Amino acid sequence: MTYKTHLSMGILFSSIVFLNVDKLELSTSLAIILFFSTLLGASTPDLDTPAGGLWQKIPAGSILSRIVRPVFIGGHRHLSHSLIGMGIFIFLYSLLLKWLGLFFPLLPITSYYILLSFVLGYASHLFADSLTEDGVPLLFPLDYHFGIPPNPFQKVRIKTGQWFENLVVYPLVNLAILIIIYQYYIHIVKR
Ligand SMILES: [Zn+2]
């Protein structure tokens, strides 16, 4: 999937959990933190490619991306698109939150939500890529790529950046986000 679809898919996953299932009463500042933490989680798996959206946003991103590339064993859609990779990045992010917590002490529940938003963003990325022809190597270093629908039906999966993603998936994901936000708003107003 393209970067914009990954970002929207991440926000959809977070909206479902925080606004639809948990119906959390979020302060504006926490909502903004969860929003960006989700976007970070949704961007992280594609740090393995210099064309990854996050690299484009950072100054000297393409040079930096080449420096950190060896960390992403196997190149694009390998370690960072697997369960082990997801575990490693969640662990690193939790360390970062702990370190940041030294400067901005947070309630444990707040740190939990921030970590959860990153996990949701990351999981949404693997889910979205599993809908594409290439699928994802969830059990890396095993080379088998999982997809929805499973093989041998990979031909009916989505082609990244083509009309189906841009004209159907992307608008539908954004529409779903708007519906969830609207329902959440009605729920808050009613109380
Ligand atoms: Zn990806």
Automatic annotation (TrEMBL):
Keyword Transmembrane helix attributed: yes
Keyword Transmembrane helix: yes
Keyword terms: Membrane, Transmembrane, Transmembrane helix
Highest taxon in the source lineage: Bacteria
Membrane-spanning ranges: 79-97, 109-128, 167-186
Pfam families documented for this protein: YdjM
PANTHER family: INNER MEMBRANE PROTEIN YBCI-RELATED
Protein's name in the database: Metal-dependent hydrolase
Species per Swiss-Prot/TrEMBL record: Candidatus Berkelbacteria bacterium CG10_big_fil_rev_8_21_14_0_10_43_13
